[in-house]
Write a structure and sequence with these properties.
three-stranded antiparallel sheet; about 20% strand; about 120 residues; alpha+beta; single chain; Arc Repressor Mutant, subunit A
């Protein structure tokens, strides 16, 4: 049998290209489900405690801690640790770079959705 008969004929493939780039160019740091939840929640609240975020997102302490740390290391969120009496309190807020990154991410997603719907 000829090699070509084993290969599938290729057809032109259209990619959804957004003004901000391709789907692969999405901010992977924000695109992950839990991190998107964190920045979205902080975008509509001045700040949230660790406990509030954990309850809101329905996740575990460890999972929230790991993902919040990644966002903090990137400068997208700020973390302030304090005490309420003898009880430790961790408070998060969205930073200006984090808000810009979220806005860019949302614009990119909107452009991809528009491109997909224009088919």
């Amino acid at each position: 049998m000829a090699r070509q008969s084993l290969l599938r004929k290729e057809r032109p493939v259209r990619a959804a290209v957004a003004p901000a780039g391709r789907a692969q160019d999405l901010d992977r740091l924000i695109h992950e489900r839990l991190r998107l939840g964190i920045v979205s929640a902080l975008a509509v609240n001045d700040s949230l405690s660790f406990s509030e975020l954990r309850r809101l997102l329905g996740t575990t302490d460890g999972n929230l801690s790991v993902h919040a740390r990644k966002l903090e290391d990137a400068g997208y969120i700020a973390c302030v640790k304090s005490f309420d009496g003898r009880t430790p309190r961790t408070e998060y807020r969205l930073t200006a770079p984090g808000r810009r990154a979220l806005e860019k991410y949302l614009a990119h997603m909107e452009a991809l959705i528009r491109a997909a719907r224009e088919k």
